[in-house]
Amino acid sequence: MREALAYLHDSELVAGFQRRCGLFLVEGCIITKPGYEVKNRLLHILFLLSAGLGHEVFYITCLPCIHWNLDPFLCRRLVNMWTLVMYIGQVMKDVLKLPRPCSPPVVKLEMRVDAEYGLPSTHAMAATAISFTLLLSAPSRIQFQFELGLLMAVTLSTMVCLSRLYTGMHSVLDVICGVLISALVMVLTYPYWESFDQFQLTSSVSPMAALALPFFLCYTYPELEHYSTTRGDTTTILGAGAGCSVGYWLNEQLGETFEPRGVLPVPLPALTAHTLALGIARFLVGVVAVVGTRQVMKAVSLRLLYWWYDIPKDDQSARTRKEIEVPSKFATYTSVGLVHSLLVSRVFLLLGLLC
User: Fold this and answer.
1) Which of 76, 119, 129, 252 is the most buried (most CB within 10 A)?
2) Which is nearest to 177 in space by CA: 125, 107, 138?
């Protein structure tokens, strides 16, 4: 068993996959040139796009489109499961402290998270959780061919998992463990999804719990001997989830959830030029709202915290301190979640963008 785990965690296994996909390490190159050669441009672009599905830009732009253009119920389910599996994965990384693949022999295409530990792959966890939570939740809401949905879920999650090997950021063991952990979490929590929905939307303690528990988990995140982006990324995720949860609760109390009307499951909307134009308009308005909120809240929260702790405003390194990083990111992304789930749909109403 130990030999099998060591084999799956071997960097050479990842490097072999990269070479089969046309990505080769070029050793001894000068600093101003990339240290790799791409011989299959199509696979290179495909895997980089797949890897991008696990980055912040996807979560704050594309994922909310399910709320804005399809069904807020489905988006709520996705956000809840995404938040849970990502927290579990991030904490496991910093508790287990297993290294990422070594370069050489592996080509490293993403350097931002190279200081983070490897196991499990949170990209693999998120892709598995999002794909299959949507697949399991959608049949009661929307009419679609389940076999086609299953094919899409398997394809999407597989591409994201393989992209983590192609970019050299995870071992095969990291990816397998990420998928299995996500699957286990879904199996254990699935019987309680409906009960949690009711608590989240109707309980008077729901908004307080949604804010207090995630903030506590962020502030008590495992300490490392060096700075890592995992604490900040985890705070971003939990903050966004907290803001969405409060927004969905407020929508329920206000009596306007913006969910599909009629007998469920409803047919998928016909893809006409009019519906496509409305979808694009909602996407653009929504992205401007959430990105604008992010920029404003980030600047305001940092300025207030620098003033509170009497830190010179040009001290960029202070942003990595826990007392600055956690409240700043939590406030920023809680606001982003609130705007996404509560305000954007009401802006759509004012602009006449809802059918």
Assistant:
1) 129
2) 125
> Residue 180 to residues 32, 133, 183: CA-CA distances in angstroms?
40, 14, 5
- Same-domain status, 21 and 77: yes
Among 192-196, 262-266, 308-312, name the most confident range.
192-196
Domain stop point among 162, 178, 197: 197
pLDDT digit string (tens) for 49-70? 888 877 766 776 678 889 998 8
Q: Which amino acid, 230?
A: T
Q: Which amino acid, residue 69?
A: N
pLDDT at 306 over 90: yes
Tell me: pLDDT of 270 over 60. Answer: yes
- State how many domains the chain has: 2
Residues 168 and 113: beta-carbon distance below 8 Å: no
Q: What is the largest CA-CA distance in the chain?
A: 64
Catalytic residue, chosen from 9, 44, 67, 170, is 170
For residue 141, give the H/E element and its range: none
Supply the range of the domain harboring residue 142.
Answer: 1-56+63-197
Q: Catalytic residue among 44, 123, 226, 274, which?
A: 123
SS3 helix, strand, coil % of the chain, rounded to 5? Answer: 70, 5, 30
d(CA 342, CA 252): 10
CA distance linking residue 322 with residue 333, whole number of Å: 16
Tell me the CB-side half-sphere exposure of residue 91, using CA atoms within 13 A. 16
Q: Using alpha carbons, select from 44, 6, 297 the residue that is nearest to residue 168.
A: 44
Active site residue 123: yes
